[in-house]
């Protein structure tokens, strides 16, 4: 494709599928003047809880998954000096949330097939300071929750699931986010349900979800969430120094309709994911492992690996050539220990997490939005094939 055409027809990586229902709902919110946390946030929480099969009172909508992780870690009772075990292959927000809670993230290398934290390597990282395990269901593929829960219960650890990729994920018939003490979700613009920015926590008890809500709104007592309702002004009390993490009705207005289409979007992404799997089977690149039996993959990311020795070009050359062909690509992720901050602060060396380092140095995510047309998918397949074959 000529360069000008490629620019004009650029396939944006992670473009959200926004339809008229979302537009009308946002306009409706603008017209009522209720922009902040209000009835649509409550409806979105109830709808999300219903989708997850939990009590409607056990979900709290926040302004990001980062916020959800931060307040969940605090509500789990984790304090300065504690350690939280997580995966070496995740977005920086996972580790940063642990650090913001005053604790130390302790990464564990990943399994080369599932790309999730390797349960066989967890116990060697447990010390007398370890308080929790924070697994990430990478790309939407569930972690080995049987093994993780077994380790957690034997060592008295909390479990906080990072479900940023895992809204539709299930493991042995149970939904992701309902295994741990807390499940944290993202509605960032590229996510399977997008509200622009947004997040959700689901918790196991009303006591803990109340604590999440207090922490997420300045540390104000529960009534603060309803202080401007039509039932009259309610006084609140500040009970601790909290944060400003609440979701707005404008975001929930989008989320309600995105969530209503979560299954049809999943079906479309599964179709594209399968198309890539068969189209790339003969190419000298790494493809994601097929989902395990008795699990449900959320198909959030389709990640290939490109290595100079086998593919004939480096990962970064591949990224450049895909962009020149008018196709947006992503990298999920360089491993945590490849970033200078963590190296300097914690002395991490990426060679200590060799599986995550290798994957992080060779991975590329291809577009997987449900609104990709068949001819967009074909263009992506053709471009990958011709770039790799040179
Ligand atoms: C694994 C993981 N955890 C946490 C986050 C943070 O989510 P948010 O952008 O909603 O704060 C992301 C976002 O990309 C993520 O991919």
What is this structure's SSE topology?
Blueprint: H1 3-8, H2 20-32, H3 39-52, E1 59-62, H4 65-75, E2 83-87, H5 92-100, E3 104-108, E4 130-134, H6 145-155, E5 158-162, E6 170-171, E7 174-175, E8 182-186, E9 199-203, H7 206-216, H8 249-260, H9 262-279, E10 295-296, E11 302-305, H10 308-311, H11 315-324, H12 340-346, H13 354-362, E12 363-366, H14 374-389
Helix pairs in contact: 2-8, 3-8, 4-5, 4-7
The chain binds pyridoxal-5'-phosphate.
What does it look like?
- The mean pLDDT is 96.
- This protein folds into two domains: 3-14 and 262-389, Aspartate Aminotransferase, domain 1 (Alpha-Beta Complex), CATH 3.90.1150.10; 20-260, Type I PLP-dependent aspartate aminotransferase-like (Major domain) (Aspartate Aminotransferase, domain 2, 3-Layer(aba) Sandwich), CATH 3.40.640.
- The protein has helices at residues 3-8, 20-32, 39-52, 65-75, 92-100, 145-155, 206-216, 249-260, 262-279, 308-311, 315-324, 340-346, 354-362, 374-389; strands at 59-62, 83-87, 104-108, 130-134, 158-162, 170-171, 174-175, 182-186, 199-203, 295-296, 302-305, 363-366.
- It contains 14 helices and twelve strands.
- The strands form three sheets. It has a seven-stranded mixed β-sheet with strand order 1-9-8-5-4-2-3, with helices on both faces.
- The structure holds pyridoxal-5'-phosphate.
- Pyridoxal-5'-phosphate (PLP) is lined by residues 64-66, 90-91, 93-94, 136, 162, 164-165, 186, 188, 199.
């Amino acid at each position: 494709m000529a360069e000008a055409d490629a620019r004009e027809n650029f396939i944006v990586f992670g473009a959200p599928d926004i339809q008229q229902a979302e537009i009308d709902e946002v306009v409706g919110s603008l017209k009522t003047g209720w922009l902040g946390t209000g009835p649509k946030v409550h409806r979105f929480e109830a709808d999300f809880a219903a989708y997850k099969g939990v009590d409607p009172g056990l979900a709290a909508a926040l302004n990001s998954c980062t916020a959800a992780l931060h307040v969940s870690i605090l509500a789990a009772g984790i304090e300065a000096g504690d350690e939280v075990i997580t995966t070496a292959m995740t977005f920086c927000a996972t580790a940063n949330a642990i650090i913001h809670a005053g604790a130390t993230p302790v990464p564990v290398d990943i399994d080369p097939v599932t790309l999730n934290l390797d349960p066989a390597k967890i116990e060697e990282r447990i010390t007398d300071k370890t308080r929790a395990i924070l697994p990430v269901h990478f790309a939407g593929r569930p972690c080995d929750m049987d093994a993780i829960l077994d380790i957690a219960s034997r060592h008295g650890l909390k479990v906080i699931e990072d479900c940023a990729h895992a809204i539709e994920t299930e493991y042995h018939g149970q939904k992701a986010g309902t295994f741990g003490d807390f499940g944290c979700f993202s509605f960032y613009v590229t996510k399977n349900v997008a509200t622009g920015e947004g997040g959700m926590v689901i918790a196991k008890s009303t006591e803990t979800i109340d604590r999440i809500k207090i922490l997420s709104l300045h540390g104000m007592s529960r009534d603060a969430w309803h202080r401007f309702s039509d039932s009259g002004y309610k006084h609140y009390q500040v009970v601790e120094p909290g944060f400003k993490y609440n979701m707005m009705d404008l975001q929930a207005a989008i989320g309600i309709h995105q969530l209503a289409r979560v299954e049809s979007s999943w079906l479309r992404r599964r179709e594209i994911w399968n198309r890539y799997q068969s189209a790339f089977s003969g190419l000298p690149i790494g493809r994601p492992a097929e989902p395990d039996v008795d699990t449900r993959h959320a198909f959030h990311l389709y990640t290939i690996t490109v290595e100079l020795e086998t593919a004939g070009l480096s990962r970064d050359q591949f990224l450049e050539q895909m962009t020149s062909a008018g196709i947006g690509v992503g990298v999920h992720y360089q491993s945590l220990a490849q970033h200078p901050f963590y190296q300097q602060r914690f002395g991490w060396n990426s060679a200590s997490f060799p599986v995550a380092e290798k994957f992080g140095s060779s991975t590329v995510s291809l577009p997987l939005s449900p609104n990709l047309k068949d001819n967009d998918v074909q263009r992506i397949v053709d471009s990958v094939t011709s770039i790799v074959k040179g």
